[in-house]
Every structure is written in structure tokens, then in C-alpha cells.
Amino acid sequence: MEKIKMFWLAVCLMLACAEASKILVVFPLPSRSHGNLGDGLVKHLLNAGHEVTYITPFPYKNAPPTLRTIDVSKNFDIMPMDIMSIKSIMDSPMFLHSIGFMLYMMIDLNRHTIQLEEVNKVLTDPKEEFDLVIAEWMFTDIPAGFASVFDCPLIWLSSVEVHWMILQLVDQPTNPAYTVDIMSTYTPPLNFWQSANELWTQVKINFLQYVWLDGVQERAFNELIHPLVLKRGRKPPTFDESRYNASLLLSNAYISTAASVALPQNHKFIGGYHIDDEVKPMSAELKKIMDNAKHGVVYFSMGSNFKSKDMPEELKKSLLQMFGTLKQTVLWKFEEKMDNLPSNVHILDWAPQQAILSHPNLAVFITHGGLLSTTESVHFGVPIIGIPVFADQFLNVVKAVNKGFAQRVDLSYTMADKLREAIIEVTSNKRYAEKAKELSFIHHDRPVKPGVELVHWVNHVINTRGAPHLRSPALHVPFYQKMYLDLAVFLVILLLVGRLLVKKAYRAVLSKSKAKKKTH
Ligand SMILES: *[C@@H]1O[C@H](CO)[C@@H](O)[C@H](O)[C@H]1NC(C)=O
Question: Any signal peptide, and if so, which residues (predicted)?
Fold first, then answer.
């Protein structure tokens, strides 16, 4: 009894000491991995004593008292998630992967989120106030409007590797001669054609934004956000005033795998923050399987979005048959029962991924290469085989291959043989595991853990009312000024005018002297 009292006393003291702020967290994307990143963020904020309002499509069952969730699971209805299944990606037309399609989809999702009754209630209620908004940036700047409504600082959280599109919101785009786009399949150093291609990507996307998508975003912003700001008695900001107003950019990446490029002072790496300090143990049954795997374990999971059950039938069969020929124990995250399993293959309809990755008998992780999975494999020091399917997975896998802890296999109907070769290579050649351990050391060798860093900077922004001292002076300098194109034009004009004047003066002098000669 005494002990319990003491515990609550300590909790109350802790809460009183840490100043509680009201934070609005905006993570509306109906995708489990993005939800995991939002949940991880919320967990750290709650532990730091803050009061959190969390816009999420994955509502909690037992939310703690300092957490209020705003359920936006209706977003599942408007995201064409079925185009994201493995089979349809293998068979679908290319336009579904095009950047224009994806950007438009993200804008629409955010517009829809703001219009949802559950969210609108909070936005229109004059009693609602926040000290900070933290929003995931996923190819649209519309969420900046939340901070404008509540007249408070904004922090962007980038769920992917830091890249030029998001950096231009707080500083400037990176140079395409030595940095790549988030959907790229190149890693620097770039050759002539690759760097030309990267430049083309930036030009193309900027052009798309300029002629089309910025207009779509701005209209949505004016239509949805302006009335809300007016209602609170303030003058509505322009879309640009709102979207370039972020105090900080937190990126779910770390230098263990990210490119080592110059970054602005208000960019902070927090990659790995979603991983718990203590790994939740796996079931006794699974532990027994892994403990007894004399030749090591191959773990195969395509994540939560791409379900193995949606694979084409012939691919499933050929993979299963191939796994049966391995000496290793195979754990396959697969959402259905399967018949005629080889004795070394075990099906898991749900996989405690972090526990599996931390098991000493794990030999290789076969993954789609999403950033959460690649971060987790670096965290636990496990080599991977990447089968990239979508978005940044190609880049993550290419980087992992370049770093030396991965093999890449392309998704296809006939990939079983290639995958078998890759498994044999990664499990028999020690260098993959050694490299993974090396990167894992780099990943953990930081002054503080990523979760501590995250909380520190969030508090810093709140306590300095938006951390204006961290903002980059480059943000509001237009491109032509950075390149001194205005000076160049000025100098050219000066030169031309100068030349003209000299010419005129010379002619004047000449004609004068001619006139003098005539009078003589
Ligand atoms: C810009 O950020 C500051 C805090 O950093 C905030 O007070 C202000 O309301 C923001 N303005 C807009 C238009 O979002």
C-alpha cells in the first residue's frame, strides 16, 4: 500500500515538474507503418508529461488519460489501398506509380481529413487551443494549416529519409549533382547521366507543383483553413506564409544509413525513436522454434501493407517449395493457413518483428525495404535481402546494398531462384552480418537516444515559442538571388550601358574635333 502511494506521489511530482503542454499530432495516413511512427511519437510525448491530441486512423483501445484520439479511420475509405497489394503492383499500369498521381492522392487525403466531422469539431471549437502542432509531411503542405488555425509553432515529421522536397520547406533543396530523390534508385557518387536524371526529377516535380499541384493545395487551404482562422478573429495567412513557417523538421532517419550531407540547424535526426528500449518477448512456442534452429533462421515479411496472401498463386507455390530446400528454419509472415508446409517452414499470421530481429539465431531478414524495417534491421544488426515494391523502398534497398549489408532481389513471378541464391550468399558470406553489426554500432553510438533527442527539441520549440533562432536564412532567398543571377543581369546591363556611353562619348569627341578641323 505504502509503495503504491509513493509511486503515485513520484508520478505527480514528475508531472508537476515537467511542464505539460498541449500538443496536436497529425498522422492521417491510413497505413500501418505510418501509424507506428505516429504511435511512437505520441508515446514519447506522453512520457514527457505532455497532453496529446492525436489525429489517427488507428484509434487506441485503452488510451491513457492524457491522450485524446481523433478517429479518422474513415480515411481508409478514400485511399485506394487495394492498388497497394503485391499482385496489383506487379500487374498495374505505370501511371499508378507516377509522382503526379501520388502527390494528388496525398493532397486529397489531407483535404478529406480536415473535412471529417471528428476533425472539424476540434478545428471549429473556439475553446480548443494548442501549444504545438506536429504533423507528418507526406508530399503535401496542407497540414501546416493546423498550426495556423491554432496560432502556434509547427514541427514537420518526415517519415522517410531526409530529401530535397521536404528540405525546401525549411531551408533549400539539396543539390541533385550529389543527392538523390526519395524515389530514386541511384546512390551517390552519380555519373553524368544519373546526375542529369536527378536534376530532371527536381525540375519535373517543381514544374508539376508550379503549374498544377500548388494551385490545388492553395485552393484547398484557402477554402478550408481561411474560414477557421477568420472565425478565431485573426487575419488568414497566405498558403506560403503557413507552409514555410515550420520551426523544426524531425526526420525518421539517422546517419548510419542516411547520406552525410549538410543540413540546416532546424533539421534533427530521430531515426529509431519508434523502437522500444525493451523488446517485448515473443511467444514461448516461437522462441522454441528459433532457439532450436541449428542452421539459423530466415525471416520473411513483406510488412503490413503488402500482404503475402495477395501474392500471385504461382509465386506463393514456388517460394514455398524453394524455402523447403533450405537447411535453415524459415519464418514466413503470411496471413492465411497453408497446406503441405515443408517441415522447416513456419507460418506466422502475426510476427513480433523486433523480437525476431533481436534473436541471436536470426541469419537474414527478407523485407520490402520500408524505412521502418530497414531501420529495425540496422538497430538490431541484421543483414537483409530487399525486395522493393513501392516508393522509397527502392532507395532504401539500394543504399543497404551499397553499405554492404544487403542483397537486392527484384519482385517478379519467377523470383524464387534469385531469392534462393541471395539467401545462400547472405547466410554463407560473413561480410553481410559483420557490416550489419558495424552499422548497428554507428546507429547506437549517439550522445542520447533518439526518443530523448525528440523530446528535447519538441520542448525547445515550445519553450522558445517556435525557435526562430534555428531558422535558415536561405528559406526566403529566391533561387535567382542564391545563384546571383540578379547580379549577373545587373553587371551585364552595366557593361552594355558603359560600352554605349564610351561609344557615344568617343563619337562626340570625334565629331567635335572634326568640326574644329573644318573651321580651321
Ligand atoms: C508561424 O509560427 C509561429 C511560431 O513559430 C506562430 O506563432 C504563428 O502563428 C505561425 N504563423 C502561421 C501563419 O502559421
Answer: 1-20
Q: Is the CB of 57 under 6 A from ligand 1?
A: no
Asked if residue 13 is part of any domain, the answer here is: no
The answer for 49, left when phi > 0, alpha when psi is -120 to 50, beta otherwise, is left
Tell whether the torsion through CA atoms of 253, 254, 258 and 264 is positive or negative: positive
CA 457/CA 459 separation, integer angstroms: 5
Q: Which grid coordinates belong to 81? A: 489501398
Number of domains in the chain: 3
Asked whether 40 and 58 are in contact (CB, 8 A), the reply is no
Instruction: Kindly state if the Cβ of 237 falls inside 6 Å of ligand 1.
Output: yes
- Cell numbers placing 338: 497453408
Model confidence band, residue 16 (pLDDT cutoffs 50, 70, 90): very low
pLDDT confidence band for 305 (50 / 70 / 90): confident
Per-position b or e across 33-55, b if 16+ CB within 10 A of its CB: bbbbbbbbbbbbbbebbbbbbbb
Contact in structure between 343 and 291 (CB atoms under 8 Å) = no
Considering the domain architecture, whether residues 97 and 183 belong to the same structural domain is answered as yes
For residue 189, whether the previous peptide bond is cis, meaning omega lies within 30 degrees of 0, is yes
Which structural domain, as residue segments, surrounds residue 489?
Answer: 482-513
Nearest CA residue ID for atom 9, ligand 1: 151
Are the CB atoms for 439 and 381 separated by under 8 Å? yes
In the chain, the amino acid numbered 32 is R
Query: Mean pLDDT over residues 281-289, rounded?
Result: 96
Q: Is there a single domain that holds both residue 101 and residue 179? A: yes
Q: Which amino acid, 443?
A: H
Residue 10 within a domain: no
Question: For 352-372, how does the pLDDT look when each residue is reduced to its tens digit (9 = 90+)?
Answer: 999 999 999 999 999 999 889
Protein residue whose Cα sits closest to atom 6 of ligand 1: 152
Q: In the structure, what pLDDT confidence band is assigned to residue 304 with cuts at 50, 70 and 90?
A: confident
Instruction: Identify the pLDDT of residue 420.
Output: 97
**Residue 68 bridge partners (DSSP):** 53
Three-class SS state of 296: coil
pLDDT, tens only, 169-226: 999 999 999 999 988 889 899 999 999 999 999 999 999 999 999 999 999 999 999 9
pTM: 0.91
